[in-house]
Design goal:
- With 295 residues, this protein is α+β, with helices and mostly antiparallel strands.
- The protein folds into two domains: 116 residues, Sandwich (Immunoglobulin-like); 138 residues, C8orf32 fold (Roll), CATH 3.10.620.30.
- 15% of the residues lie in helices and 32% in strands.
- It is built from four helices and 15 strands.
- A five-stranded antiparallel sheet has the order 4-5-2-13-15, with no helix packed on it. It has a four-stranded antiparallel sheet with strand order 3-6-1-14, with no helix packed on it. Strands 11-10-9-12 form a four-stranded antiparallel sheet, with helices on one face.
- A hairpin with a 5-residue loop joins strand 4 and strand 5.
- Helix 3 crosses helix 4.
- The chain is globular and about 55 Å long.
């Protein structure tokens, strides 16, 4: 299967503003791209790329004053299968975990696992360690938190989501991440594309999504507390401790976002990417857009 994916963000800057963006496909999936998913800007500006401490690919640039558009547009190969499951994947004892996973056991800005530890053990301490325990966390979060774009708030933490019971996909993920870390499960926050391929109509407007990966049985496994079901066409852009580590765009100054759209659609086998196309028909600006977009 081939999936065309990309995004476009339009701004109206009052003066030149430095930006750091995470819009490229994660390096772990980059080999599946048909060509480089270069960051496209209008007007054109130089973009310096680097990898952050989590291995994410970042772009650094200065956005000029006035109208400015930034985005990507690419085609990636995908096996067309839904997210894999590994029901027998075991939880590691903390003393047996690889050193590089220990960071993802610690509390972070949006995932206060220390404050939620008592609740986590009360709710899930009776479950068997391993895949089933993580799924129990996802089942609880999926049922406990009401989804709505009108509930988006950039300052909401896992503790807030647990207390308030509402939010967007990042809030579902922050709460599930915090619970899993409190249960001694290394868990990282992920952002990227989740397509609607294979999902019943009607489909909502495209947007970036958040999910998590949990270290079980010697590898990282995808869990999605917002959708709570395996999906086709999941493509990671970035991962970190929480949304603070993986803002899709970070502006060091005003952020007058005036347009936003995302696409991740199946491409017919004989179609080729049209370099002059600008993605799918434009959608209105989603109400969850913020000064710093965090998937």
């Amino acid at each position: 299967m081939r999936i065309r994916l990309g995004c476009e963000m339009r701004y109206a800057f009052p003066y030149p503003v430095p930006m750091v963006v995470m819009l490229n496909v994660h390096p772990s999936r980059a080999p599946a791209l048909e060509g480089p998913d270069a960051i496209l800007t209008s007007p054109p500006v130089p973009v310096e790329t680097y990898r952050d401490s989590f291995g994410n690919l970042c772009g650094r640039l200065i956005a000029p004053a006035g109208a400015f558009t930034i985005g990507t547009d690419a085609v990636i190969a995908d096996d067309g299968a839904r997210d894999p499951t590994a029901l027998t994947a075991e939880q590691h004892a903390v003393e047996d975990l690889p050193a590089e996973t220990l960071l993802f056991l610690l509390p972070s800005r949006y995932c206060e696992s220390d404050l939620l530890a008592d609740a986590a053990w009360r709710l899930f301490g009776h479950t068997a360690p391993g895949w089933g325990r993580v799924q129990a966390v996802c089942d609880f979060v999926h049922a406990h938190v009401a989804f709505g774009y009108e509930f988006a708030h950039r300052d909401r933490t896992a503790v807030d989501a647990y207390a308030g019971g509402r939010g967007v996909c990042r809030d579902f993920t922050h709460l599930a991440v915090a619970f899993c870390r409190a249960l001694n499960l290394p868990t990282r926050y992920c952002t990227g594309y989740v397509s609607f391929i294979g999902e019943p109509e009607p489909h909502p407007a495209g947007d970036f999504a958040a999910w998590m990966e949990v270290y079980l049985g010697g590898r990282w496994h995808v869990f999605d507390p917002r959708n709570n079901a395996p999906r086709i066409g999941r493509v990671m852009v970035a991962c970190g401790r929480d949304a603070a580590d993986v803002p899709l765009t970070h502006t060091f100054g005003p952020n007058p976002l005036v347009g936003f759209r995302v696409w991740a659609d199946a491409v017919a086998a004989l179609d080729r990417l049209d370099p002059d196309a600008a993605g799918p028909p434009e959608e209105p600006l989603p109400p969850q857009s913020m000064t710093t977009r965090m998937g």
